[in-house]
Amino acid sequence: MVCTKCGFTNEAEAKFCASCGAALSAPVVEPAADTYTNPADTYTAPVQNPTPVYSAPYQAPVQNAAPVQPVAQSGKGFAIAGMVCGIVSLVCVFPFITGLLGIIFGAVAKSKGFQGGMATAGIACGAVGLGLWLFWIIFAALASVAAF
Predict the structure, then answer these.
(1) In angstroms, what CA-CA distances link 91 with 20, 62, 84, 103?
(2) CA distance 13 to 29
(3) Phi and psi of 2, rounded to 5°?
(4) Following CA atoms 70, 75, 76, 78 in sequence, which dihedral angle do they give, to the nearest 10 degrees?
(5) Which among 25, 44, 87, 126 counts the fewest CB atoms within 10 Å?
(6) Tens of pLDDT, residues 91-120
C-alpha cells in the first residue's frame, strides 16, 4: 500500500506508514461505470384517489330563476326624512317646523318597525332643535322685558 503523505510503498496489511508513521487508509474503490441507474427509470407515477361516490342524485341547476330582490325595511323613508329634518332644525333659523317634522317622521318610522338609528337621530335632533328654539324665544322675551 502506498502512503499518501510521503509516497513510501508499505506492506498490504500495514496500518501505518513505515517511513513517516502516517495512518494508512483502505484504498478507495471507484464504482464501475456501468452501475449508474437513471432516476427516470425508477420513477413510478403517484397513486390517484378513486373518483368519490356521491349518495345524493344529481340535480341540474335551475335555469331562468327569478333573482331575489332585497326586502326594503318598512319606514326607512320616514327615518331618513326624520333624520334630515332633525339635523336641519339644529342649524336653521326657524327650527320650529323642521324640529317638529323630525320628531314626527322619526316616530312614524319607529311605529312602522324600522330598526335603525336614523329614526332615533331624527327624534333626538328634532327635540334638541325645538329645545334650542324654545330657549331663544324665552331668552328674547326676557331680554325685551329687561330692556324696558
Answers:
(1) 108, 55, 11, 16
(2) 17
(3) -95, 135
(4) 160
(5) 44
(6) 887 788 889 999 999 999 999 988 888 999
Exposure string (b/e) for 9-38, b if CB count within 10 Å is 16 or more? eeeeeeeebeeeeeebeeeeeeeeeeeeee
The H or E element containing residue 129 is: helix 117-147
How distant is the alpha carbon of residue 75 from its chain centre? 32
Tell me the pLDDT tens digit for each residue of 36-56. 677 777 777 777 766 766 667
- Cβ atoms of 78 and 105 closer than 8 Å: yes
CA atoms within 13 A on the CB side of 33: 0
Distance from C-alpha of 124 to C-alpha of 38, rounded to nearest angstrom:
84
- What global pTM score does this model have? 0.49
If one compares 78 and 40, the residue with the highest pLDDT of the two is 78
Q: How far apart are CA 131 and CA 138, in angstroms?
A: 11
E-strand stretches of 74-134:
none
Q: What is the DSSP letter of 58?
A: P
